[in-house]
Amino acid sequence: MIKSFHPPLRTLMGPGPSDVHPRVLSAMARPTIGHLDPAFIGMMDEIKHLLQYALRTENPLTLPVSAPGSAGMEACFVNLVEPGDKIIVCQNGVFGGRMKENVERFGGVALMVEDAWGTAVSVDKVRHIMQQHDDIKALAFVHAETSTGVCSDARALCRLARDYGCLSIVDAVTSLGGIELDVDQWGIDALYSGTQKCLSAPPGISPVTFSERALIKISQRQTRVPSWFLDKNLVMGYWGGGAKRAYHHTAPVNALYGLHEALVMLQDEGLEQAWQRHALHHRALRDGLEAMGLQMAVAADVRLPQLNSVTIPEGIDDPRLRNALLERYGLEIGAGLGVLAGKVWRIGLMGSSCTQRHVMLCLDALENTLL
Ligand code: PLP
């Protein structure tokens, strides 16, 4: 007979998911109610307001897609890209490549701006390509590249998109809650994020937001949105607000209790305080790693505090070391991805996994295991 599953106790310091706070776990254990129950709908409205706070936006179309970050990504592209549309896609790691896939699958033409993995998106290269075309529909880029630990200049890139009359589509899966992100001030038109990184809610939900400009583009589409589930017009019947809610899909009720609690915790801490906490513990981790003789893999000016890429020293057996951390300390750190596989570790300090205790545990475990 198969028995109940009890996961081992872990400390999550990889690229996500991060440790889910006990308050969030206990919120998720509350009784399931109907997804059209007035009490649940009241909670949905609160989630929307809390997301607007976390994203710094007044966009009415701000909601959590009932599926992971990849679905939020697809929601942005499937609604905004039409066949033949030229979209500038910046790639400096794994996730820019997925944006390209999305553009092409929806019939768009991806004009690629490539930068080396471990460096930021070059604003100059983007400007150059914008100057060469007068019919660009959108600029898409990843704010915080989780595959490398690099932060790109979202503010400057979105300003460029505005200057050249195109929309901006931003991947903020790893940035939301960990570093400065200001949807309205920066003029972001479409953004998707994830719940399992710096929000420390359970994985499987993707906050998205669309600006007025993005909604105009969607309303002027010549072709039908080629996805039923992610068509924003249909989702809005359920999430749109007002007394009348139409059934669209059965929301992940308990997971949304968890997201609500995680967002309440962020609100209680304060958004800027959360950014400062990430910066503070990042500095402590960096100092400890460097004191141990390890080197950060990303230049200081574009380093993400919540995702620390560390160069694996010569002669270290990477899978063996990570296994030892897991077995001896219950500690998960991330492996390198793609071209960085075997070259770096990715140490996450995200949300509830960004505390002094996490920094001390990680340094102690690494030091003892590297000996
Ligand atoms: N974009 C970035 C930058 C990510 O880090 C991730 C996940 O790690 C995704 C998109 C995809 O999110 P999910 O795994 O929730 O589908």
UniProtKB/TrEMBL annotation:
The keyword Transmembrane does not apply. It comes from the Bacteria. Residues 35-338 form the Aminotransferase class V domain. The keyword Transferase applies. Substrate binds at R346. Pfam families: Aminotran_5. The modification N6-(pyridoxal phosphate)lysine is found at K197. One of its GO terms (molecular function) is L-serine-pyruvate transaminase activity. Its cofactor is pyridoxal 5'-phosphate. This is Alanine-glyoxylate aminotransferase.
